[in-house]
Structure formats: C-alpha cells, structure tokens
Design brief:
Helix content is about 85%, strand content about 0%. The protein has helices at about 1-25, 35-50, 50-64. The N and C termini lie far apart (about 45 Å). The longest helix is centred in the first third of the chain and has 25 residues, at about 1-25. It is extended, with a radius of gyration of 16 Å. It has about 60 residues and is mainly alpha-helical. The protein is built from 3 helices and no strands.
C-alpha cells in the first residue's frame, strides 16, 4: 500500500514538472541556458517573498 502511495506521488510530481517545463516553452525560453533560467526563477522567487514582491505582484495584477 505504501509503495502505491509513493508511486502515485512520484507520478504526480513528474506531471507537475512536465507542466512547468511547458511554461518555459510557452514563454519562448526553450533555448535559454538552464543556469540563466534557474537564476532568473530564484531571483523572482526571492522578490515575490520580500516586501518588494508585494508591490510587484500588485502592479502586475493591475496590468491584466
């Protein structure tokens, strides 16, 4: 039973990673270096978690 749970969790994790990779492709970043993408995502994550990210998120929502 525990093995089936682990297998299901791994499948879910794999599907999520594939979907996230699809976002990179949709953004037109397929051919960018992986290190650049990782750095950009880490920086974005840092900004979103900071007080600056609060303002960034709100101004981004106003553009939509």
């Amino acid at each position: 039973m525990a093995r089936a749970m682990t297998s299901d969790a791994r499948k879910k994790d794999t599907r999520e990673k594939i979907a996230l990779g699809g976002l990179i492709v949709k953004a037109g970043l397929r051919y960018e270096k992986r290190a650049l993408l990782l750095g950009a995502l880490v920086e974005l994550s840092r900004r979103l978690k900071s007080d600056e990210g609060e303002a960034f998120s709100q101004s981004d929502a106003e553009d939509v």
